[in-house]
Amino acid sequence: MTTATQRATLAAPSRPSAVGSFVRAVYIVWWRDVIRYGRDRVRLVASLAQPMLYLVIFGSGLSASLGAGFAGASGISYTQFMYPGIVAMAVLFTSIFAAMGIVWDREFGFLKELLVAPIGRSAIAVGKALGGATQAVFQGAILLILAPFVGVSLDVASALSLLGFMAALAFGLSSMGVAIAARMRSMQGFQMVMNFLMMPMFFLSGALFPLVGLPAWMTVLTRVDPAAYGIDPIRRTLLGAPAERLALTIGDQTVPIVAEVGVMLLFGAAFLTIAAASFQQRD
């Protein structure tokens, strides 16, 4: 009897653990979003066109207007100063708008199939956030090939550091997008809310102007803007010593890069928790 029981136990298929099921569900949701992104060539080209347009028009126009004054004060040209912000812009726009797929899936019924599937609903939120972050990092990495054309030197170590900083920024913003999209019922509503949030976040992040010597009220707004803590490490890594003069400060203290990355990760974790709770509710 004991031998027969042991044989039956060995022959029975083992059930995957709860952690294994969760990881597999996250992977499937993530991989689906990555595949959809890779197949959408028009979206890839369009999402690159806007940052490059900003770099060419704003960089050329404002460099001519500011002249040698900006370079003399900062040690870099305005185009060089703006370049890290444009890289971060690609990450910001891509990571947030990647969450639009949630609203799209809801309208076409695919999200309902995911919600009734025998998987943890929080896995949907994690998979969507990681999928959006992956797309955003890829978009930002493509723009790194422009570094030599704007006079920025980039080595392998700096490139790897930049990928990590872009991943932290993308994770935070993608999680915010997923948390908002989980509450939206229409594409128009999602686009309106995201445009309302995204443009102030971008313009107050220091992507287009240094965050020094600002009015007190604007200084406060820039310090509570999470994107500012994601863009500053990218600029300091890309531009080196000259960027340290323009680094993000609180009071008279320069914010360490480790602290800035921590802010973005905590910001992302908070919104990912909100997104997971939103998916737990009955749709």
Short description:
With 283 residues, the protein is mostly helical. The protein has helices at residues 2-11, 18-39, 41-66, 68-74, 78-97, 100-107, 110-116, 121-143, 156-181, 187-203, 216-223, 226-239, 241-244, 257-280, and strands at 249-250, 253-254. It has 14 helices and 2 strands.
Which helices and strands appear, and what pairs or packs with what?
Elements: H1 2-11, H2 18-39, H3 41-66, H4 68-74, H5 78-97, H6 100-107, H7 110-116, H8 121-143, H9 156-181, H10 187-203, H11 216-223, H12 226-239, H13 241-244, E1 249-250, E2 253-254, H14 257-280
Antiparallel strand pairs: 1-2
Helix pairs in contact: 2-8, 3-5, 5-8, 5-9, 5-10, 5-12, 8-9, 8-14, 9-12, 9-14, 12-14
Kindly state the mean pLDDT as a whole number?
Answer: 81
What proportion of the residues is helical, as a percent range? over 70%
Work out the oligomeric state of the chains in this entry. single chain
Query: What is the overall number of helices?
Result: 14
Strand order of the largest sheet: 1-2
In one word, what is the shape?
Answer: globular
Residue stretches low in confidence (pLDDT < 50, at least 5 long) are: 8-12
List the helices and strands in order.
Answer: HHHHHHHHHHHHHEEH
Number of domains: 1
Report the major sheet: 2 strands, antiparallel
Instruction: Please state roughly what percent of the residues sit in beta strands, choosing from under 5%, 5-15%, 15-25%, 25-35%, 35-45% or over 45%.
Output: under 5%
Report, as a whole number of angstroms, the end-to-end distance: 49 Å
Going by helix content, strand content and strand pairing, the class is mainly alpha
* Extended strand count: 2
Rg measurement, Å: 22 Å
